[in-house]
Amino acid sequence: MKRPNILFFQCDDLDLSDFGALGNQVVTPHIDRIMREGITFDRAYCPAALCTPSRYEYLTGRYASACNGSGYLNQNPKGQPGRIFFNTDVDGKNPTMGSVLTEAGYRTGYFGKWHNGGKIYEDLPACLTRDASLDDPEVDQALRELQAKTVAHVKAVSGYTDVGAISFDNKEQFPVFDAAYHWTEWMVEHAVDMMRDCGPEQPFFVHLATSAPHGRVYAQEQVRDTHYTMGGKLDHEPIGSEKRYALVERCAELGYGPEDRALIMMHLDDQLGTLLAELERLGVYEHTLVVVSCDHSLEPGKGSCYQPGIHIPMTASWPGVIAPGTRTEEFILNVDWMPTFAQAAGGQIPEDCRIDGQDLKPLFTEGRSLDRNEVFLNIGYQRGIYDGRYKLILTRFPETVLQEMETGIRDQAPNHMDRTEAGQPPVSIECYPHYFAPDQLYDHEFDPDEQVNLAEDPAYAEVYQQLRTKLRTYLESIPDHPVDIHIPPYMQTDHYKELASRTRAIGTGHLDWWPSGSWVPREPCFPEPSP
């Protein structure tokens, strides 16, 4: 079989309500086409539901808690539980999707949002202020130089042959406000240029990592001049720009308001359509594996082990390999795509390289089960396991953190990321009443929104022990950062519960992007006990 071209369209912060073909009102004809012509993964998950660790898992095929990057190891000494947040950097230590396919003879391109480590926004030129003008020649030149520096870093650590149009971090962190937008057309144009530059015999891998739909939706962003980018002003309108200008009016005709999420989803779908049209124009669509996925889902589960953040929409098409209209209930993880792409490309992953994912091609071609019965979860100081019905979440702090609470150095309990400035933990604290319990057990059949902790319920004692045993196996596979399955005695004291109540009292009023009370959990529906 001819080795396929690969297009990996990776979005930021997608929800199950964002694909039209999943029964939603949003109009996404190009995503729907991939679902119609390929496979829909009804149980796709990201073990670490936050930008950096999830992207690390995609790129390397290994769990975030198994990160061996220097930054992560500096922050997490061996022998203590690892804290996973924006610290699982890709730093060239491990093979990536890009490096493995490059070695297999592919032209490999990474375009879009990086957010996988590095120190680019330090020692910036004085002209790159928050209110700098993009029409100022000095600013324009500084932006070009900053983009070149960014591209060089990503290329050096990722192993991709072609890198461009990089949004280094979340767009909100970009130093110049007027450039801090989703410049998707700029990213797509770089991908199209690379595809056009590949001859008919040159296989390619395009990794288009959009920065959208992360953040708020504004109609004004859709009518911005697309000549401007984070890398300076272009001398032309990038490919696909005409779709942006017509989008607000199109959405209004469909009844969507100027800040409706449908606006950014239709924008993304339009840009995917630009890439699919180019594949067809080049005559290679029938030989291309297309994957549409995302790093994680939305609040109140984003950045935690709770369900709304970890369950993600995902679809793929591969003409002649994946039967059209297929749906699967197999557990699919983000770590699966690195080995899948490697096998499809005929690439070799070094034998001594840890890979936690599985090759999905046997599932595509033979319907072969992955024999995966649960999902391992890892974020912050939380670890968890989910088997499709029951979920167990453990929170385990290092001894130093426990001692600081016990001795009064800390007057509040830390959130699971131990970061006061992190936005997602306060949302989880507000929405999940048992957030601070050291062990949380949920039965999704009767309590899909995880409101009733069953860890101490005698009726669930056997389930509780079974999940602890399964979770221990995953934890023991990461020996450098051991997580004790046993509950620390201090986390069962009244003093810990008092510190936890102080943290809960902070609330979410300081988060201007989260309307408190906007998420209403479904009522648990446990059956009445037998008389």
Description:
- The chain has two domains: 5-366, Alkaline Phosphatase, subunit A (3-Layer(aba) Sandwich), CATH 3.40.720; 381-504, 2-Layer Sandwich (Arylsulfatase, C-terminal domain).
- The chain has 16 helices and 13 strands.
- It has helices at 29-37, 51-60, 70-75, 97-103, 137-158, 184-197, 219-222, 241-253, 261-281, 307-310, 337-345, 361-366, 399-406, 424-431, 461-476, 494-504; strands at 5-11, 39-45, 107-113, 162-167, 204-209, 288-294, 311-312, 315-317, 326-333, 375-379, 382-386, 390-395, 439-443.
- The strands form two sheets. Strands 1, 2, 3, 4, 5, 6, 7, 8 and 9 form a nine-stranded mixed sheet that branches.
- A hairpin with a 2-residue loop joins strand 10 and strand 11.
- Helix 6 runs parallel beside helix 9 and helix 8 (241-253) packs across helix 9.
- The model has no long low-confidence stretch (mean pLDDT 95).
